[in-house]
Amino acid sequence: MGDNGAMSNPRRHSPAAVFGLLGLLFIGFGAGYLLSLRQNPEAPDTGIAVPAGLNLAVLTDARSLPAFRLQRHDGRPFTVDSLRGHWNVLFFGYTHCPDVCPLALQNLRYAWQQLQPDPSNPARPRAWFVSVDPDRDTPKLLGEYVTYFHPDFTGVTGPADEIDKLTGALGILYGFEDKTPGKDDYIVNHSSQMVFIDPQGRMRAVLSPPYDGDDIVRALRFLEARFGPQADNHITPKPESLA
Amino acid sequence: MIPRLSLLIVLFLTTLAARAATLQIQDARVPEAPPVAPVLAGYLTLVNSGEKTVRVVGASSDQFEAVEIHEMHMKDGVMTMKPVPALTIPAGGKVSLAPGGLHLMLIRPHKPFRAGDTIRVMLKLDDGSTLAVNLPVKAGDDHTHHHH
Fold this sequence. Notes:
The complex is a heterodimer of chains A (243) and B (148).
Chain A: H1 2-6, H2 13-38, E1 56-64, E2 70-72, E3 77-78, E4 88-93, H3 100-115, E5 126-131, H4 139-149, E6 154-157, H5 160-170, E7 174-177, E8 187-191, E9 194-197, E10 202-207, H6 213-227
Parallel strand pairs in A: 4-5, 5-6
Antiparallel strand pairs in A: 1-10, 2-3, 2-6, 4-9, 7-8, 9-10
Chain B: H1 2-21, E1 23-31, E2 39-48, E3 54-60, E4 64-75, E5 78-83, E6 87-89, E7 94-97, E8 102-109, E9 118-125, E10 130-138
Parallel strand pairs in B: 1-10
Antiparallel strand pairs in B: 1-2, 2-7, 2-8, 3-6, 3-9, 4-5, 4-8, 9-10
């Protein structure tokens, strides 16, 4: 199959080359960033044992988020405050995405079916699908898209510069391919991690692909058990006897 | 002269039909998506039982505004996607369009599809013939987990 992917259409070269270059820079930056999450030399060795087989990078110090102002699909504002008081899973994507985004939402649905969060509990975990394609993803479209997968999932969109504040802080990368004014068909390349935000509204962990619904369940259960609903900023290593 | 020409035409058409007949379709499906989804993904495996390489050079469907072949790559957690101009299925070989790799990008459905519906896609082959493929729309598989 890989052979087919190697073919490229020469007519697309000039815009593709530009985006390719940008993409490489983005990917390079992203790889470096994610590597820094895993191998931060200044981070104390707190011995956070992530469950085996789980591709979860846990920040030893939770990272506060900058102010941003986005919009939920129901019209209500989405800010750091929206993330406080419960655990959060964020996925960044777009509704014109045929493969990765529906699969991610399907995995989240599977996770939610396993976790069965009580919809009346304000401390239940939340799943947010943040658009990186605000020009096409209206709140209405996003709402109908995400609630198809689960009634408690929320779509988020807003001005690109506000989205960038959040993606920048979380190390989420995205870029457009062949996007020109008046053209409605374009591809959005984007990070496919699930980002976990703690009940204080701080970035705590990143689940990298490939992952499935069970991995999301395990990651959430692990983070809740490890850091609790009212986590401190610094990790207190568990006593040896209990480890 | 005329009978000979029509014989040639018949032979030519038979060859075309034979060419398309060497391609078998397996595991064709479209996962059900939200009714508002502007795009759907089509998956299938193309098996070439013939003795010649077959290339799929295009796709279309009466039920969609456009159909393209795309391939997605995952590198360092970043998903990139690009159109693939053709699929090459070597003699005796196969090409799978499956989640996480190649897919038919079904763009702007004329109406929403639900599980149980059938989507019909015409694959254009390099010899000028077309191959009709029926892809059943299937309910979202909640057992999409890979095994560790």
